[in-house]
Design a protein that fits this description.
With about 190 residues, the chain is α/β, with parallel strands linked by helices. About 35% of the residues lie in helices and about 20% in strands. The chain contains 8 helices and 8 strands.
């Protein structure tokens, strides 16, 4: 079984099996591999989900639901944007894009991994000092400046690796399975 976060078919994609999709499906069929993809459910899960796990990893206590899929809460230790950025760099091994327009000390932060830049205004409206996601949208820089909030884009791929590994580790422990995480780095 191949357990993934992002599957092969998306709502915005045509339901036509072109050459690229055919090759992907044939690789699975020819090897007798089942594909299981848990995208939004894995993002939102409070224990093994990307958002809650990454929040905890960055020192955020994820006790507040945010935007129906993410989590937010207070930082265990308030931090400057430089200190928080260092935490992100260390946790994810990538260089985040930072629009530093929030308060000097970050006390509350919200996290939605992947492509969730559209929730920046919601984070500001809900009183968060910082919003972290995987990738920005075009208005992110100026919105962060106008709303007085820090915006951190840490990479779509980088922010969505943690949940699938936690889920697989849990399944392996429960069912005595061997597993391996195959890292396919993507700078986006």
């Amino acid at each position: 079984m191949l357990l993934v976060h992002h599957g092969l078919l998306w709502d915005r994609d045509p339901r036509v099996i072109d050459d690229a999709a055919r090759r992907r499906l044939e690789a699975l069929f020819d090897a007798g591999i089942t594909l299981a993809a848990y995208h939004l459910a894995l993002d939102a899960h409070p224990e093994v989900g990307n958002n809650a796990l990454l929040a905890r990893e960055l020192g955020i206590e994820p006790d507040e639901a945010f935007a129906g899929i993410g989590f937010g809460g207070p930082l265990g230790e308030p931090a400057t944007i430089e200190e928080f950025t260092a935490r992100v760099r260390e946790a994810l091994g990538s260089e985040p894009l930072v629009f530093a327009h929030g308060p000097t000390r970050i006390e509350r932060a919200a996290v939605i991994t992947g492509g969730a830049g559209r929730y920046l205004s919601d984070a500001a409206r809900e009183g968060y000092d910082l919003f972290l996601t995987g990738e920005p949208q075009e208005p992110s820089l100026h919105l962060a400046r106008e709303l007085g909030i820090h915006f951190v884009a840490a990479g779509h791929y980088a922010t969505e690796r943690i949940g699938i590994q936690a889920l697989t580790e849990r399944l392996a422990g429960q069912f005595d399975l061997d597993w391996e995480f195959i890292d396919l780095p993507n700078p986006v």
